[in-house]
Each structure stands twice: as structure tokens, then as C-alpha cells.
Amino acid sequence: MLEGQEVYQEWRQAVQNKVPAPAWNATLSAIKFVDYGQNILSIGVPSQVQSNQINNRHLPLLEQELRTIVGPQGSIRITIHDSFDSQVTMAPPATPTTPVVTFTPATPKVGRGQSLDPRMTFETFVIGGSNRMAKAAAESAAERPGREYNPLFIYGKSGLGKTHLLHAIGNYVQRHWPEKEVLYVTTETFLNDFIRSVREQSQIALHERYRSVDVLLIDDIQFMIPRGEGFHENVFHTFNTLHGAGKQIVLTSDQSPRDMDKLQERLRSRLLQGLIVEVGQPDLETRIAILQMKAERENVVIPNDVIEYIANRVRDSIRELEGSITMLRAHSQLAEEKITLEFAKSHLGGLGRDQMVLKPQHIIDTVAGHFGYSALELRGPRRIRPLTHARHIAMYLVREMLPQSSYPVIAKEFGDRNHTSIISAVEKIKGEMVSDRELSQVIIGLTNEITNSID
């Protein structure tokens, strides 16, 4: 008679041989052995999302393969296994004498940059064939900061999870090494700090801020390209100082450094010396997993046919995938109706359309007209309360309806504001929509008006 582990290994291999590679990579590869007895194979998965996926899409095949091995009474039991730390098993540290790190309650040292989002962790990052290598590299850099893949350069189109990985690295380091200082900034913030230091002749303070940290995380470095030689020089020396001190550098961009021809050559060369990984468009299995996880986080029941409808319509933006769940939840609550496929089709009619058709100008014009202002006023500096509220709604809608637009890009549409004001406005409107039914109806009405006007 086969022992439990032997049954599991034979069954696992049989399943891997039967399912398509994307399904295996996105969902099934994370399965672990828990127990076997009385023809019942207990397996563990990291989250309820993956448990739901397996139950809904793969269970008949899994049990069929088990019965081929143990007989017709074989069955599968799925549990949420709390021993999972991540979905990718990383290699052990290169230096065997490194002490084991255990969590000790302490106040993490956070650099004087932007706050890390505690929701963006490795555990909440859905992996698939398009991002597996990027996630594994990010985990490795987080587990051994400064010793693996330094600098780590993650590139890909907007809305595919690059920023999530940056936050996940920062959150992991803060959780496991509270004494290490982590600094997360966008390139715009870095540039503004540089300009201020030149104007105020405070370069020493700038160097102290950026060159004394243990982990430096910089988002959207493609915005460095058009900047002057002085800024490129400062960035180069900052990276050199950190790299020489064994500090971790992680960067994101919408293009590979190989394509950054206008970047200072030695800065570009420094970037090319590290590990460069791409985050690609998620495959169908991954898109489904992302939608299921978002639905679970939003505590909303989305039928499988609706999940598949959305996943087939939206192929190239995780942000748009997640936004569709938020929009469905709002529509469902306001209409007091269950979410069905017909309901989804009627309220997500513009989903997955060619986003090049819709421009920020069109959204701003529509919102301005609705509230009785001009587009110029929405873009301007005046801060009377009704105008500011309308401006925040316009910012929110540009972000939601044009998910490929980054915060710095949106900031330029609104009079070259600081991108942090866009982030604040978007989060403010999101928060208000939870409890303000009237605001939610206004947002939905504007969304429908904008969508219908470009049909």
C-alpha cells in the first residue's frame, strides 16, 4: 500500500501532466500535502481564493486522478493552510552563517517618503506565468536585501502590479527587520526633493535622506529620462553609494533600461548591471484569480459566469479588473439587486473597450458640465468647497476609467499638481462612496454618461 506522501506525489504529477500550464502555474502549483487516510487526500492552499478556484474549476479532475491511483472511493479535502508564507519557495540564504530572523514587535524605521500600503503584500499578489519571475525576484530581494539582485528593475505596462511588488518588498522588510529603514518614493517626489535641495542649497540633507536608507524603492523611473544631466548625476551617485554599502535598490518603469537611450549612459549602465524582470499581461487563469481575490476582499458574491465574462473582456490591466468589481458592488448595493451575468453586462457595457478612444479631457468636460463649472476651473487652483469636490470626482473618474494612466500623468491633466494630491482625492472619493449613497449615484450616472457618449 502506498504511503500518504507517495500517493500525494504520484497524484500531483498526474494532475500536472493533465492540466494546461497556465492553470497549473496560476492555481495548482501552490498546493501542499496535509494528510492522507481512508482514501481521503487532504491538501492545503494559501488562501480562500485558491480554495474557491480549485473547488469551482478543477475538483472533478483532481478527484478523477486520485481515484485512478487509490480506487473509486478516493476524494479530495481542501484546507486553508496557515503555514504558507508565500506562493514561491525561495532558495536558502547564500551565507549559511546568517542568523535566523524572527519577528519581534518593534516600530519599523520608515524613510521620510510616501507611506507603504499595508494591503499590498506578497500574500495578496496573485501570481501567473506573466509575473512569476518578477514576484520571485522581488521576494528574494526582500528576504536578502542588498545581497540578491541589486539593483532589481521591474518593468511593464501601467496597471500590471509593479507598484504592488514595490510595496510588498517594503512591507516584508519592515515586518521582518524593523530596524532597517525603508524609503518608498515616486520619481516625481525624488525630482521635487532634488530641485528643492538645489534651490535651498541643502544637498547634504538630500544625500542624507536618500543615501542613508537600507532599502530604496523608486516607482516610475521613466520620468527621469527627460530630466537634466544634474539630476541624472545625482541619481547615479545615490545608486552607487547605496550599492557600495550593500543597500537594496528596487526600481519600476514602463520600459526596460535597455530602451532608455536618453538616460545618462553610466546611469543606464548601472541599471543594466542588476536583474531586469518584466511583468506582462496576465493570462486568463490569473485574471480570474485576481477577480476572485478582489471580490473576497470587497466581501461581495460574484458568480463564476460574471467572473469569466469580466476576465475575457479585460486582458491588459489589473487595475481595470479590480475596478470592475468595485463598480459592480456599488451598482448592486444601490439597485438592491443580486449580481448576475445580465446585471454585469448592463452595468459594465464599456468594459475592456479600447481605452485610446476615451481621453481625460472628455471626462473632465463631462464632470465640469454636470456641476456647472468649466474644464478650466476644474484644472485651476481655486479651492472653494463645491469646486474642489467636483475636481476630486473628476480625478477619481479619470483614474477609474483610464486605468493605464498613472498618478503623475493624471496630475499633469489637472494643472501640473503634485501626484500625491491625486492619490488623496481618489482615496477620499472611494471612502465617501462607501457611506454616501447620493455620491455613489452621481458617480454611476457620470460613468454611464461618459461611457454612452463614446459608443
TrEMBL record:
Transmembrane segments: none annotated. Residues 148-283 form the AAA+ ATPase domain. Gene3D superfamilies: 1.10.1750.10, 1.10.8.60, 3.30.300.180, P-loop containing nucleotide triphosphate hydrolases (3.40.50.300). Keywords: ATP-binding, Cytoplasm, DNA replication, DNA-binding, Lipid-binding, Nucleotide-binding. The keyword Cytoplasm applies. Residues 359-429 form the Chromosomal replication initiator DnaA C-terminal domain. One of its GO terms (molecular function) is ATP binding. GO terms for cellular component: plasma membrane. One of its GO terms (biological process) is DNA replication initiation. SMART domains: AAA (SM00382), Bac_DnaA_C (SM00760). The keyword DNA-binding applies. HAMAP family: DnaA_bact. Belongs to the DnaA family. This is Unannotated protein. It comes from freshwater metagenome.
